[in-house]
Design brief:
Helix content: 25-40%
Order of helices and strands: HEEEHEEH
Strand order of the largest sheet: 3-2-1-5-4
Structural class: alpha+beta
Strand content: 25-35%
Number of strands: 5
Length: 124
């Protein structure tokens, strides 16, 4: 009996891993098909880095807009689908932005915007 339960547990784990591989392959395909020409050159979008000023805390913070898989809020990598990311999408340098999170609303001013195009151009 014990051998059967270990075998079934291994099969279950294998099925979970196979399903995750399918998900990751799908996501890689989606990411690989990102059309840079459709990403704005003057507004915040995927790959943009933003320097924000929080007047309440009198501090600056830098965020980069990334996919959910790349997200690392502690490292400044913010998902485009997160509350902060959604609030920043489509904004321009100089815009005032209200970000609503479960912890409450925060107000930011976009002090600098570097789009993915600027970053690619700088590497050329």
């Amino acid at each position: 009996m014990r051998e059967n339960s270990e075998y079934r547990a291994a099969l279950d784990r294998q099925n979970v891993v196979k399903a995750r591989i399918v998900e990751l392959r799908q996501r890689i395909s989606e990411i690989g098909s990102i059309d840079l020409s459709k990403i704005s050159r003057d507004k915040a979008g995927y790959g943009s880095t933003l320097l924000l000023f929080d007047g309440e805390k009198d501090e600056e913070v830098t965020y980069r807009l990334v996919t959910p898989e790349e997200s690392d809020p502690q490292g400044g990598l913010i998902s485009t689908t997160s509350p902060v990311g959604k609030s920043l999408m489509g904004k321009e340098e100089g815009d005032e932005v209200v970000v609503r999170t479960p912890a409450g609303a925060r107000n930011f001013e976009i002090r600098r915007l570097v789009t993915i195009h600027d970053q690619v151009d700088d590497k050329s």
